[in-house]
Write a structure and sequence with these properties.
mainly alpha
């Protein structure tokens, strides 16, 4: 049932241009193909722009995170004594 309804709707959409306008079917199909091609070129260009922007952002973020690498490595280590825990807390919170 659903396939018949889908087939009928698709048939109506594809044949509507041939029945309602004076252009031939081939011209209408060519116009649709050209518009579709232009849309796909736009998708490719915008995808490349987004990819390049994110790559630049990651490079900038990676360079800035290298300076804070020592503190982040220390965060993952558990202090062995009370003194080392206090030193880490002071260093982390910059209490001098």
């Amino acid at each position: 049932m659903k396939n018949k309804i889908f087939l009928i709707i698709t048939l109506l959409i594809l044949t509507a241009n041939a029945g309602l306008c004076e252009q031939t079917r081939t011209v209408a199909v060519q116009d649709i193909a050209i518009k579709f091609g232009l849309a796909m070129v736009g998708v490719v260009v915008s995808s490349f722009i987004i990819f390049a922007g994110l790559a630049i952002y990651n490079k900038i973020r990676e360079n800035s995170s290298k300076t804070n690498l020592n503190i982040e490595d220390d965060i993952l280590k558990t202090p062995k004594s009370v003194d080392s825990a206090i030193k880490f807390f002071i260093q982390k919170n910059k209490l001098r």
